[in-house]
Amino acid sequence: MSDPRILSRPAPDDGAQTPAVRQLNDLLQRCATQGASDIHFEPYEHAYRVRARIDGVLHEIATPPHALRDALSTRLKVLSRLDIAERRLPQDGRMTLTAAGRSIDCRVSTLPTLFGEKIVVRLLDTSAAQLEIDALGYEPSQLNVLNAAIQRPYGMILVTGPTGSGKTVSLYACLRQLNSPDRNIATVEDPAEIHLPGINQVNINEKAGLTFATALRAFLRQDPDVLMVGEIRDAETADIAVKAAQTGHLVLSTLHTNDAPGAVTRLLNMGVAPFNLASALLLVTAQRLVRKLCEHCRAPAELGMDALRAAGLSSIAEGSPSGYGYGYRPVGCDICLGSGYRGRTGIYQVMPASEAIRQSMLSEAGTRQIAAQACREGVETLRQAGLKKVMRGETSLEEVIAATNA
Length: 406
Description:
Blueprint lengths: L18 H15 L4 E6 L4 E7 L2 E6 L6 H11 L11 E9 L2 E12 L2 E10 L14 H11 L4 E6 L6 H12 L6 E5 L10 E4 L8 H8 L6 E4 L5 H12 L3 E6 L4 H11 L3 H7 E13 L5 E5 L1 H6 L3 H5 L6 E5 L11 E12 L2 H8 L4 H10 L5 H10 L5 H7 L3
Parallel strand pairs: 7-11, 7-12, 8-9, 8-10, 10-11
Antiparallel strand pairs: 1-2, 1-6, 2-3, 4-5, 5-6, 12-15, 13-14
Helix pairs in contact: 1-2, 5-6, 6-8, 7-12, 8-11, 11-12
Protein name: Bacterial type II secretion system protein E domain-containing protein
Family: Belongs to the GSP E family.
GO molecular function: ATP binding; ATP hydrolysis activity
């Protein structure tokens, strides 16, 4: 379904520009203004479609004339400095877009399809407001724990979650807070999504032999204070990162697991020695992104026993005299253009490595045992953290359930 927010007034016509250039400029500007994270240019046999991902949901925003297909693709490739003659192989490039008074880095990728090149433009908003830890959605108690961890001189902090859950932004927000003239900070990424002045950023290049592990080894000879590894993908990278955290460096990285306890067992399963992990790990935070309810039209809603039981939160209703909890639901208005949602926020599980959890690592406990210990220590699950936002009217129960079903 189309998102009406995109269908605003087009840019003024410039007779000096070709139709493809005018249409592309208009599409990029409108999508950037509306906060799109990705723009998809998709060729089909007799049609051409442009979709944008806004607040995590894809919307069809335009169907340019099929005759402009090649011209639009060529223009995008020129802007991102790609080989316009190469249409048989995927390519990756970058460009910068200026919209609403701010500069936006864009990552461009092409993919040959049956009827032409599909191109996806990922918009990476580098504005300072996007990289403030306070604005990411942590609960105050969680934020205190995170801030204490990133101020430690050494140790490992892990951020875990599926693709698209905001892990990279969380790491960049931490790095931005740590960035100061008296710290040497280096990152290795695939690729570096946001450029951070004052931080040494490296893109891996596996064809040339520059892997996460190779870069980490090189960093350790460069007098680092803080290291960020875009993702721990293999045993070698995990081992080097953990040992770096043991030897006087603060190491931040990401994993793909469902929750914070799962990150611990993932590293143990990779072959990291339990003693090394227990002595290095400071904190694991798991996260998801949920859409925020529109503040102009959200409405109070009773959360009945059936809904809460389905969410695994029936204790909320059972503790209520009426058998109901209370939250908010989406309605839809002119401000949010009928969707009921506007923007996104994070929900988090923040698990510090307590002495008891370290002992669980040493005994190579499973995810369930570590999760049970974290629960005894008051660590909320992602769903419990999400319910707080439901009760405050920040999001809906449906959003939280959808985000935490895995």
